[in-house]
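Could you help me review a protein record that somebody else here produced? This is what I was given.
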Amino acid sequence: MARLSNAAVYGLVVGGLADASVAALVNLYTADLAVSLGVLAGGAVVVGIVVRYVNAVQQQREADRDRQGLLARIRALVPFSPRLRSRTVALDLADRQNAARRQVRLQPSVGPERLPMVLTWMAGLDEPTVDVPPGSVRILVAPMGAGKTEQAARWWEEWLRIARTDPEVDIPIWLPAREVGASLESAVVAALGRDPHRPCRVVIDDLDSIGYQDADYMLNQGRQLVRVWPNLAVLATSRLGVVAGSDETLSVAPWPEQRGAELVRLVLGTELPRNIWTHETTELLTSPLLAHALAVRLGTGQGGTVSRPALLAGLARSIIERRRLGPAMAQTWQDLARLACRVLDSPAPVSAISFGNEAQVWRLTETDLVVNADGVLRFALPVFEQHFGAQAITEGIVALDVAASADMFPRWRYAIAFAIATADLVQGEGLMVRLAQTNPAAASWVLDEVAGQRTSSVDVAISSSADVLAVIGASQPSGPQAAASGAAVVAGGWLREAQQALLDGLQPLAPRLARYRADKLTQWGVFLQGDWITVAESRESTPPPEVVELPDSEPEITIAAGWNRRQQFSFPHGHLGRWHWARGKLRVPLAEMIRRGVLPVPSTSRLAAERLWLLAQLATRGGTNWLVDTIALETLRQKVAEMMVTVNGAVSARWDMSGHVVESADVRWLEAELAAQTGSELTRPWPSPDLHHNTRKWAWEGYSPELTHSILTAVIHDAIVGYRELVELNFPRFGAALGLYGILPVDVEGIVTRYDDDHADQDNELLFVLKPRGRGKRSDTPHVALELATDRGKDRRWQLIQSEPDRPRSVFAPNTSSNGSIPLYRNRPATTLAYEWLVQDLQVIGWTGHDTRFRD
């Protein structure tokens, strides 16, 4: 008798035997069954086993007639594994699953009569696949609807064709990111039924759906996986925001316009009307999702002139209305919004049983917007998730304050942007006011995300200050009284509302960014002439009223009347224009505070100690001297008292000392800090050089390798703590939108290479990697472990670089590795590093420009 395969045995046990034979198998002892299945080799042994099965049938038939119960008991004895499938069955199953995924993506926007033709057309495209070498990870990064999943599917299909002809390669694996679980390796092994030692391709789809931290963690798992199993190739898809190296990121090329037009023609079943060909329409045809949405829009009799957000917003509504759900429609919309909330609130899959009863789940899947895959609910397209997330915000199902909160915003950011981009002017501006007050980081990111997108006829009509005033009218906070006061007051109030909302969100930093008196933003004076507006701030006057009309815009009149900080500019009437203006106005003083390193920190912070030492040197010596170890406090207090005389006698005082600018606020801060000092001397915050040789040329040569290592270890530790203090004291509402703050607590591993003798032109070289702990409090003390190496450290540095590649900074996630040097002779080394991280974080959310730098 021929040997039976595992798949054949499983088929006999589960479905191939008669009821009596199945019952007989159940009656066998577990151990006996295992031995029997293991020795199915042929001959008398097999015949004997079969005879025993037949005899057992007669004894078991009377005792247990419930075949389903028997099958369950059999499956418990012989658990299912993908290895039990024959290769032919597994290949066919993979082919059907791929076809089903493409059908799910197309079905919502394509009628059933047109769907087969569109599926055939999509499958027949000759688009080349991406290149992912074995042993590597690549990420397709592009905006929503650009065709990332389709390109990944073609790469996956290419390997499936290879697997049909080459039995020595594994069938490709497709993993939705939400369903991977805690271990990517476990998910791959479970899909294959064994270790992935043979050539195989793995797709991780929709990586950004699990949140930036989990996405970065999964990518790191993928990088480790391909090192352990170098025959694997991993391709992930993600919208912008994921952290990846330049050698890992793959772009998605726009579709040719002709291809988009052909897809629209297939979906519609007719040629495109000639009158819809405009520049805007042509741009829509370069994206698969937008081409689908355009076809749906044209099929409902609407025109082709529409913005991207409005087009995507109308896609879901057109589909669900086409389903004609009748009286249940309102409830279905509510359920879709609730599902979007569940999906966006957590990176974990949403099970059908946890969401609602069978009727609720059935209503959702009947819309074609939601898929129930093995008991897990997900939207057929990411755009539906964002659309109904936006609906949940605008309809109050989820509070904007919650969605935009410090920790929730990274997952809700696209839904919030969708809500603001698709609202009319008044509603969108109202959402922006609440968003700015809740989280200015979120408001700034959304502002850049939807910049320039006009989404309604109201917005298109706004091309001047007069148009704005006509739309907002009495909707200003001061109501009809403001409108009655004149166009200048209404226009000024419109601008002031945006700045005030951002300042409310920037508390407690706000009084340092704008003129306040008695905890209030001072009164504004406004002069409006055509599209030009002049805004001046009062030196002393506070509301009410918040805004008054200036009699003239001439500077001498303005200054004589008690106004200053005069600014003349073209009225910002574009989409969200006032928010660009308000943010730009506040970015100027913020950049100056960062450049000088004067953001408030606790008095106990190392950053405060470094600033105190710098100012003490400037006050007593007029410059900085890195060889000085102590400063007498009596001498320092005397110098500060002399400077305070000047400060108290002037509106503002300023000293320029050896390239450092000292202002009135610095002197006041120094006086307050000195009041808390005890003893007779102020000591430098870092150890002095321990090597004193006249032959040494460079300042850094005064530090021995051991002292270099010791100081750098402490600098990195204090910089992490100082960075956290900067965020918590100055940007408390930004939260996880600041990438480094989002991954705290962290530990640090690294290596410092300190050359000597024949490398006299080299400072210390430092490479370190931030290792997120995953659990714990952000205030937990970081542990810094640096190795000290000399010339032999070159190889070790290369090993560390290879194990943790330097990846560029991305939205909501920091670059976790740093490579460079920290000069020990600087006055504020910990401050320099902490501000460097802060500036990088603020740049990616639009709160500083790329020219903003801390200057020690």
Notes: The mean pLDDT is 79. The first strand starts at residue 136 and ends at 141. The chain has 35 helices and 22 strands.
